[in-house]
Design brief:
Blueprint: H1 2-17, E1 33-36, E2 40-41, H2 48-63, E3 67-68, E4 75-91, E5 97-112, E6 117-132, H3 148-165
C-alpha cells in the first residue's frame, strides 16, 4: 500500500509539473516579438476596441510564440473593426426569438518588420457567432456560448486563430 501511494504521487507530479508538448509551429522562426497596434473601431458599438485588444493580447501571451513588445518588434499586427451587427437569427415555433447572431467584419494586416514584408492582409474578414435569447433553453444546456459577451470573445479567438494560421502556421 505504501508503494502505491508513492507511485500515485509520482504520477501526479509528472502530470502537474511534467514537460509539455506544443503542437504549434512557427514557419517564420525569425519572428519572436510582435507589436499589436491599438484596434480601430469604425462602428458605433463602444468599447469593442478595448475588449478586443485585451483578448487578442491575452491570446498572444497564452500562445507564447510571439512576445508582445512596444519597441523594435519583429512583426506588427493592425486590426480595424469595420462593422458590427447583433441581429435576430432564429425564432421558435411560438415566434419568440430563439437565437441572436453577432457578425463582425475586420480589416487585418500582419507585417514582418525584419524583412519589411506584408505576410497577411485581409480587408473584409467576416466572423460570426450565435448566442441564445434564453440561456435556460435546453438546446443550449451543453453550449459554452451563452451570452453576447461570450459570443464576442469566441469571435476574437477565431480571428486570432485565423491570423496565426495565415502567418506563423502557413505551410
Amino acid at each position: 500500500m505504501k508503494y502505491s501511494k508513492s507511485i500515485l504521487l509520482i504520477l501526479i507530479s509528472f502530470v502537474l509539473f511534467g514537460c509539455t508538448y506544443s503542437v504549434f509551429s512557427n514557419q517564420l522562426p525569425h519572428l519572436k516579438s510582435i507589436y499589436v497596434s491599438p484596434i480601430l473601431n469604425m462602428t458605433e458599438e463602444s468599447e469593442l476596441e478595448t475588449e478586443m485588444f485585451n483578448s487578442i493580447s491575452n491570446q498572444f501571451i497564452t500562445d507564447g510564440r510571439l512576445r508582445i513588445v512596444s519597441q523594435k518588434p519583429d512583426c506588427s499586427l493592425d486590426i480595424e473593426i469595420k462593422s458590427y451587427q447583433d441581429k435576430i437569427y432564429t425564432y421558435d415555433e411560438s415566434n419568440n426569438v430563439k437565437e441572436y447572431q453577432i457578425s463582425m467584419t475586420f480589416s487585418v494586416k500582419f507585417v514582418d518588420n525584419v524583412n519589411e514584408k506584408e505576410i497577411y492582409s485581409q480587408t473584409s474578414l467576416l466572423k460570426t457567432e450565435r448566442y441564445p435569447a434564453d440561456i435556460s433553453d435546453p438546446d443550449y444546456s451543453e453550449s459554452t456560448i451563452l451570452t453576447k459577451e461570450e459570443a464576442r470573445e469566441e469571435i476574437y479567438l477565431d480571428l486570432f486563430k485565423t491570423i496565426m494560421s495565415n502567418t506563423l502556421e502557413a505551410w
